[in-house]
């Protein structure tokens, strides 16, 4: 009698084949559901990181244009206006660069070296400088904004055309007609287009507006410098 009771109790402590199969099935369904959620989650994290990085680039560009003492002695207004007026655009580069032979990096920002600024060593970036890039190179293109009035008056009170009324189809930009001497507005508005590009031997230092108009910027916004 005791043996029969022990045998019966030992049978009750095990699992049937059906129970095992059901448990494995439930486990696999749960794992597959989690794997399915993992992709969108990682994509969402990646998008947040990219948004934060672009936001940081925008803040860096705005601070550089408004406050950098390297652009000009005194107000940056004339230097930036003249830079955009020449060729109807001005290009900045923003990137992280290695410090010498170390693994440490530092943020670099400056105009393309064809643009004359007060301190070319600290406010300009050459093609050789970009060889030290530690990641994405952000090409920042400044062009006349639609916020600029179409016309204004010069010092004598004569009417002056400030910019074109429509975009140039070959460059997708407005054309700046005024010179620094005839542009008497208190601020100069610019459209800012930011392009993310990979560093390396295939990186193109200079790009014409006719080429850039066919490329998709990671972000576009308007900013202004005050006289």
- In the sheet with the most strands, the strands line up as 3-2-1-4-7-8
Mean pLDDT across every amino acid position: 84
Spatial extent as radius of gyration: 30 Å
Overall 3D geometry? elongated
Query: What's the tally of helices?
Result: 5
Number of structurally distinct domains? 1
Topology:
Elements (H helix, E strand, L loop, with lengths): L1 H11 L4 H51 L9 H9 L4 E9 L6 E8 L7 H4 E2 L11 E8 L6 E3 L5 E3 L25 E11 L11 H4 L6 E8 L1
Parallel strand pairs: 2-3
Antiparallel strand pairs: 1-2, 1-4, 4-7, 5-6, 7-8
Name its key features:
227 residues, alpha+beta, six-stranded mixed sheet, two-stranded antiparallel sheet, elongated
Provide structural commentary.
The chain is of the alpha+beta class. It has one domain. It is built from five helices and eight strands, in the order H-H-H-E-E-H-E-E-E-E-E-H-E. The chain has helices at residues 2-12, 17-67, 77-85, 120-123, 209-212; strands at 90-98, 105-112, 124-125, 137-144, 151-153, 159-161, 187-197, 219-226. The strands form two sheets. Strands 3-2-1-4-7-8 form a six-stranded mixed beta sheet. A two-stranded antiparallel sheet has the order 5-6.
In short:
With 227 residues, this protein is of the alpha+beta class. The chain is built from 5 helices and 8 strands; from the N terminus they run H-H-H-E-E-H-E-E-E-E-E-H-E.
